[in-house]
Write a structure and sequence with these properties.
- This is Iron-containing alcohol dehydrogenase.
- Its cofactor is Fe cation.
- With about 400 residues, the protein is of the alpha/beta class.
- The chain is about 50% helix and about 10% strand.
- It has 14 helices and nine strands.
- The strands form two sheets. A seven-stranded mixed beta sheet has the order 1-2-9-6-5-3-4, sandwiched between helices. Strands 7-8 form a two-stranded antiparallel sheet.
- A hairpin with a 4-residue loop joins strand 7 and strand 8 (about 170-175).
- The mean pLDDT is about 95.
- The structure holds zinc ion.
Length: about 400
């Protein structure tokens, strides 16, 4: 199949334009959403690449007075969002182009939310019905363009922002934070180094896997999760082995968007642990999920036997069972060069009690197959530090 056969326009869960070279449609995408002066939000690393100059050039040619804001950290903070809102207001902007990996996309979506609010950011944390406090009319429209394949934040309705004062990652949520238009262009991901490709790809897998395993009733999400995991199985090793494999890059971008679509069904223990670990140790989110994955699976084994059998059959694994799936995860992880324990990231067990407490309180914990308490999460964390896969 030629690559042009992959050029499509989708309207589920939002408008998604997928295909090689489609970043060139950025200006028309902005215009469709009524923008005249978009603010391009990205991280400092990308801001230095030709990609950003190209996008600003395309906007300028189309008569759009685009501005640039790039003060976004990996694991973006409330202060980053505040600075972005100030830049948006100072430049009199009327929309946001969100460009980058999960951190830049999350920051950009939060900035687009906050330009129209007079309450502080943390008032919109995803707790209870806090989202109803949002002044929807004030929100800025967003065109989202991912440059990594993992978080799927481009089709997500939330942003993860670090509350620096309290060293905790908070989920900021509103249904309208889902970007109105998404461009999935694999050429933007060709330059990603293999280890980032591997870690972000495993994040996509963790989204689909946790969504698939969560106990809530959502067959549509479950179907999307299954096919997303099939794409990861077939294309992540290819994308890691050869970063210039455009089809593998495209399929991983799609798998990533699908993973984030699927996790409307729920996440679970991997993310419940990865969020506090990211906040406490500033470690890479996808890498944390990749390392935690088998430990969390083993802890949930009693609730997952039948589900894993079905999943292993769909993925056409050698053995259609929980162990068949677990072994595939372990082999994949090793083949991608991902460490087997958290100790490899210089994380020790000294804060195990705190990690357990934070994981039990994390909103993702609600989707875990078994109800786990703080002590259970501490135990899983200690095992992941030690590399101990026994139940
Ligand atoms: Zn994730």
């Amino acid at each position: 199949m030629s690559l042009s056969a992959f050029t499509m326009n989708w309207n589920y869960p939002t408008s998604v334009r997928v295909g090689v070279g489609r970043v060139k449609e950025v200006a028309t995408a902005c215009q469709q959403l009524g923008m005249h002066k978009p603010l391009l939000v990205t991280d400092p690393g990308l801001a230095a690449l030709p990609m950003v100059a190209d996008i600003l050039g395309i906007c300028k040619e189309a008569g759009l007075a685009a501005g640039l804001f790039s003060q976004v950290k990996g694991n973006p903070t409330g202060a980053n969002v505040d600075a972005g809102v100030a830049a948006y207001r100072a430049g009199d902007h009327d929309g946001v182009i969100a460009l980058g990996g999960g951190s830049a996309l999350d920051a950009a979506k939060a900035i687009a939310l906050m330009v129209g609010q007079d309450r502080p950011l943390w008032d919109f944390e995803d707790v209870g019905d806090n989202y109803t406090r949002v002044n929807v009319e004030g929100m800025a429209p967003v065109v989202a363009i991912p440059t990594t394949a993992g978080t799927g934040s481009e089709v997500g309705r939330a942003s993860v922002i670090t509350d620096e004062a309290n060293h905790v990652k908070k989920i900021i949520f509103h249904p309208k934070m889902l970007p109105a238009l998404v461009l999935l262009d694999p050429e933007l991901t060709l330059g990603l180094p293999a280890h980032i490709t591997a870690a972000t790809g495993m994040d996509a897998l963790s989204h689909s896997l946790e969504a698939y395993c969560s106990p809530f009733y959502h067959p549509m999400a479950e179907g999307i999760a299954l096919e997303s995991m099939r794409l990861v199985k077939d294309y992540l090793p290819r994308a890691v082995a050869n970063g210039q494999d455009v089809e593998a890059r495209l399929q991983m971008l799609v798998a990533s968007s699908m993973g984030a679509t699927a996790f409307q069904k729920g996440l679970g223990g991997m993310h419940a642990l990865a969020h506090p670990l990211g906040a406490l140790y500033d470690a890479h989110h996808g890498l944390l999920n990749a390392i935690l994955m088998p430990y969390v699976l083993v802890a949930n084994r009693s609730a997952l036997e039948a589900r894993m059998e079905r999943l292993a059959r769909y993925l056409n694994l050698a053995e259609h069972s929980f162990d068949g799936f677990l072994n595939w995860v372990l082999e994949l992880r090793a083949s991608l060069g991902i460490p087997a324990s958290l100790a490899a990231l210089n994380i020790d067990a000294s804060q195990a009690d705190k990690v357990g407490q934070m994981a039990a309180e994390d909103p993702s914990a609600g989707g875990n197959p078994l109800p786990l308490n703080a002590a259970d999460y501490s135990r899983i964390f200690r095992k992941a530090v030690a590399g101990d896969l026994t139940a």
